[in-house]
Every structure is written in structure tokens, then in C-alpha cells.
């Protein structure tokens, strides 16, 4: 794409660009417009699937940029609405089903249940659960067995190159890749002069620490992130306002500081 791009912004969605409660981003409109005026890139980086991110990316007018989906296990390329087919998810499911039944049955993945099952597991609405179920790169699920059974299960998966990440609620299986890995790839492609990353949760930290400026967006619904690498030196900024309002202020301040107008 564009050579000599000044700035690429990498942003988490829930609790960062998107309000935790209302799911709205309107409070960030002024900063989004300012970014668009200087032709900055804005990369959405979320645990959501491609179909979940795609509609929002269009609404935000960011369709000419890729989006980081499924927590960095994959990318939704620019200018496409959906990932046509990846062999990764199918391959994950095949590997899972090759594991002896007594262990296999202790993992209940999104692919093992109906949309109603995903509603039950996540608390999402039916429509949102239907989109969350359309996976391309990773398989979240619940572990129903003991810790030692889990170790045995994971050992078998590792033998096939499958990586597992234990989150608060879900054990997520993939072939690797996280938000910062994808961020690095995008930076290598576009060589921006500056990068800014914004997030609110532990899975955003590596991205925030890797950017020229990392912005911790306040989220009163979760414990604050501990002091981050670079924070004492001013590379990490914390917003006072939560969600898109904090996002808006932080971006406008940084555009001033970097003299990007
Ligand atoms: Mg978040």
C-alpha cells in the first residue's frame, strides 16, 4: 500500500474503541476523522471472528486496512468482507478429532455445539453467537476434565503444532499467532514512521509495549493493568475516560505531540 505512511494505529475493540456497555464508538468520531484526514492506518485488533469484525470495519470506513481477528491467530485482509476458507480451522478440528475419545470429549469447543450452545457458553445474543461460531483460525472451548487430563490433552495437541491459551473462561486452540505478531507483520509491510496501540486488557499489553506510544484505555469493569514496560519513560499513556471517549482524547493529544495534522 502507501509508502511513507506517518502513522498506523492498532486498536483493541471491546472496552477500548467500543464502549463496554453500549457497544458504541461514536465518542471517538473526532479522532477517527483526524486520523482519516492524515491518511493514518487504523487496524482493528480483536478476539472477535472475521464476520464479527467485518461489519464494524465497514461502518468505521476502515475497509482498506486489514484487521487482526481471533486474538491474532489470523488476519482479515483489506477489501474483503469474509475469509473465504482457511484450512486452519478445519485442520484444528481434524487434529482434535484424532485425539482418543476419553480426552477429546472433555473439550467442548464452539464447533462441538449449536449456536444455542455458544449462547449458553458466552452469554452472547443469538446473532452474535452465530458470528462468533464462524471461525477461521482458532477454536475456543471449555475444559471439562481435571488439570492432569488437560496436560495430557495439550501434550497430544502440541505434537501436532497446536498452541493453547487459557483465558478467563475459555481454552483457545490455534496454530499460534497473537495480536503483537500480527502487528509486527503489518509494520514490516507498511513501515510507518510512528505507531500507536490502544487496549484495556492483558492480551493487549505486548501490542502497547511494542508501539511508539501505547495507550491503556481506562476500563472501570476490570482491574487496572500493572505498570507496563516503558511507562516510566512516558511511552505508555493512561486515559482517565473509559472506552471511546478516552480513545478520542488520547489520539487527539498524540496527534498534537507528534505534530501530525
Ligand atoms: Mg478489550
Automatic annotation (TrEMBL):
Task: Pull one GO CC term from this UniProt entry.
Answer: cytosol
Group of enzyme by EC: hydrolase
Q: Which GO terms describe its molecular function?
A: magnesium ion binding; mannosyl-3-phosphoglycerate phosphatase activity
Keyword tags: Hydrolase, Magnesium, Metal-binding
Q: Name one Pfam family in it.
A: Hydrolase_3
GO biological process assignments: mannosylglycerate biosynthetic process
Ribosomal protein as UniProt keyword: no
| Listed EC numbers | 3.1.3.70
Q: Does the keyword DNA repair apply?
A: no
Q: What is this protein called?
A: Mannosyl-3-phosphoglycerate phosphatase
Q: Which organism is it from?
A: Yoonia ponticola
Taxonomic lineage from the root? Bacteria, Pseudomonadati, Pseudomonadota, Alphaproteobacteria, Rhodobacterales
Amino acid at each position: 500500500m502507501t509508502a511513507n505512511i506517518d502513522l498506523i494505529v492498532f486498536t483493541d475493540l471491546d472496552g477500548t474503541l467500543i464502549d463496554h456497555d453500549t457497544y458504541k464508538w461514536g465518542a471517538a468520531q473526532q479522532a477517527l476523522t483526524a486520523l482519516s484526514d492524515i491518511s493514518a492506518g487504523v487496524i482493528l485488533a480483536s478476539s472477535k471472528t472475521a464476520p464479527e469484525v467485518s461489519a464494524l470495519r465497514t461502518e468505521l470506513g476502515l475497509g482498506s486496512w486489514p484487521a487482526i481477528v481471533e486474538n491474532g491467530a489470523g488476519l482479515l485482509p483489506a477489501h474483503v468482507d469474509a475469509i473465504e476458507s482457511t484450512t486452519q480451522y478445519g485442520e484444528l478440528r481434524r487434529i482434535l478429532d484424532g485425539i482418543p475419545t476419553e480426552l477429546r470429549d472433555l473439550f467442548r469447543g464452539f464447533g462441538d455445539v449449536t449456536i444455542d450452545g455458544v449462547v449458553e457458553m458466552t452469554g452472547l445474543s443469538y446473532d452474535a453467537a452465530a458470528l462468533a461460531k464462524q471461525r477461521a483460525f482458532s477454536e475456543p472451548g471449555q475444559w471439562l476434565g481435571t488439570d492432569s487430563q488437560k496436560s495430557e490433552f495439550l501434550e497430544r495437541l502440541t505434537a501436532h503444532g497446536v498452541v493453547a491459551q487459557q483465558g478467563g473462561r475459555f481454552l483457545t486452540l490455534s496454530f499460534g499467532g497473537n495480536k503483537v505478531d500480527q502487528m509486527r507483520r503489518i509494520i514490516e509491510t507498511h513501515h510507518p514512521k510512528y505507531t500507536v496501540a490502544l487496549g484495556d486488557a492483558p492480551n493487549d499489553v505486548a501490542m502497547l509495549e511494542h508501539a511508539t506510544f501505547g495507550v491503556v484505555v481506562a476500563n472501570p469493569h476490570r482491574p487496572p493493568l500493572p505498570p507496563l514496560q516503558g511507562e516510566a519513560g512516558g511511552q505508555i499513556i493512561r486515559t482517565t475516560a473509559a472506552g471511546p471517549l478516552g480513545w478520542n482524547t488520547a489520539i487527539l493529544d498524540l496527534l498534537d505531540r507528534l505534530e501530525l495534522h
